[in-house]
Amino acid sequence: WLVLLPLLTAGCGMDREDFITEYATAYCDWLDGCAKIKTNFGTYDACITQKEIDASEYFAPSGNDCSFEEDKALECIETFEDIACEQAEADIAVCREVSDCYQKTADQEQTAQ
Length: 113
Description:
By secondary structure, this protein is mostly helical. The chain has helices spanning 5-10, 16-33, 37-40, 44-59, 70-79, 106-112. It has six helices and no strands.
């Protein structure tokens, strides 16, 4: 039964809200594991707050015409496992493909209509 549990939860998929939370956690866990959290954000909680904002405003905006690519979102989150600590930032190309509205806030999306 316990072996099947991950398979059952994996089948539920990831939505925009899940991505925002998981992106922030993955990013801040990477920083924390590389001893960069204090230098970049001061605290883990401050990192989570900022990265949730970044994810919701830049990587997966909520505009009506914005797509959300679940496969790209999952790939983005999984990529954090492979980022070397020597990298200054976690700039992951696939994270920019989570939505076709990358770096467009909801306000910008409404203005474009």
